[in-house]
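Holo prediction. Input below; ligand is glutamine.
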Amino acid sequence: MAAHCCSCSPSAPTAAKLFCYSASSQLLNHQISSSSYALPCGRIRPLERSSCERLAFCLAEGRSSKLGFSNPSLTAVRCEVGVSEPVLGDSQESLREGLSIFGQKSPRNASQEEDEGFNPMGGWMGEADSWREECGVVGIFGDEEASKLCYLALHALQHRGQEGAGIVTSDGGSMKAITGVGLVSEVFNQEKLGKLAGSSAIGHVRYATAGESALRNVQPFVAGYRFGSVAVAHNGNLVNYKELRARLEENGSIFNTSSDTEVVLHLIATSKARPFISRLVHACEQLEGAYSLVFLTEDKLVAVRDPYGFRPLVMGWRKNGALVFASETCALDLIEAEFEREVNPGEVVVMDKDGISSLCVMHRRQRKACIFEHIYFALPNSVVFGRSVYESRYRIGQILAEESPVDCDVVIAVPDSGMVAALGYAAKAGVPFQQGLIRSHYVGRTFIEPSQKIRDFGVKLKLAPVHHVLKGKRVVVVDDSIVRGTTSSKIVRLIKQAGATEVHMRIASPPITGSCYYGVDTPRKEELLSYRLNVEESREFIGADSLAFLPLERLRSMLGEEAPTFCDACFSVFAMHRPIVR
Ligand SMILES: O=P(O)(O)OC[C@H]1O[C@H](OP(=O)(O)OP(=O)(O)O)[C@H](O)[C@@H]1O
Ligand SMILES: NC(=O)CC[C@H](N)C(=O)O
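Structure of the complex:
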């Protein structure tokens, strides 16, 4: 195995050209990376890991077989730095292949991938791999039916995570936990809920951001330490968990999971602070990234939100005085808890038999609430970050109609997340809204072979066109976002096959040009369609007759004075950057 760079520079080059060789020194493939990164002598570091870097890294580590690379005789790479011309010819296909092979979930590392049976094809097979952020958390204190209420609230939050679900309860003396892989309805039944005794509970639905999707990573996690037991459920992503974990392991901690969340329990257990709340605060102060957390001990329920308030967390009360925390207000509504307020960024809310107390102990910053909750993650019947999600999406649809009108016969939505914006668009444009695509709610992600012909069945499984609505029509289709562009191109093809004469795509968010550093497990920027292509190139890529996005400045003006309290970095970062990768 050999991996070397022919030109090394500690200062960041603007681009790198990668040549891959077979054992017989035949040139197999080449790609260009647009990242700026340092190439230390004789070794390529997996720092930003563009597809080129990642290939080089894996080869350098002698792990090419782990990649499942289609040509096992691939043995060497050579990188040239400072190359700036775009890849020509079959670049689109080679990039796709590269992404499918090297697509990885941050923030895992190479050895973890080996341990966890890393599937190198995972990032591309089957349906589009969109934003990974969500997870839903619930906490209930002071209700004899705590586990059942928690179960119902998790149903209301099911859209935030479908990989696993769990509930932990406390009866004041001991704690019981049940977790499982799959949907809430698959994990729990009457008998299991009956075993979860106690008047306080926390629950979780998971969409993995760190650590594989497996039973051991399903939350809530419970741990015993010398002062008792503590359970935690987390929505967010801890960007420094690997460093924290390494430090804890050096000092003897033994981890049960590969999830980022587990570090919180170890930090609590090893903290020298007293009492419990100080240990908890001490632990949270060491975390970087996004965290809306609920903790349960034998006698306390605690909710914590990170100082930027990236992810939502609300609180409310049931008529019998039970306190409820939840990721979204739709969960409060379902279990008839009246919304009181959000847990504030940096706030720690503690509930025990003596009542509720609030500590604003963590240094509070300018809030940076994730705007994507309003665009995609949350349900439209929720109030998130103090605003109605329905109103935001409806208004965005109206703005799209103002900014990018087009002669059309019908407005349709990509269900479900494009629905409300499509209603707003249709109302503003004065064009009928129709259900042109019917969504099957029984299809999850489909894992099928990555040939274009077969992939199209994947989207048809989930979305069926209504020929009667589409045939012979000029159609406006509204979707919430374009990430890699795979869904949009399939949908355009589907609608055209159903007989539409024109397809105009309207996207209820600005172009996504950057990955999320704080919390959302997004694809790397090189995989984002709008990082690689401008609007006209994107239109061509998806095959629509026209394509328009929500202008960022209109989104900000919609948010008004609150705009600086929302994080829109995924739209603004690299927005002016002219991409090299094609
Ligand atoms: O550009 P892409 O990489 O294809 O991703 C964008 C798509 O992903 C999301 O849908 P998703 O498939 O998650 O379905 P959902 O709306 O049902 O959540 C989103 O609503 C877009 O349709
Ligand atoms: N989507 C989330 O909020 C995930 C929580 C946590 N990072 C996990 O992977 O389990």
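The longest strand covers residues 228-238. That is the main takeaway for now.
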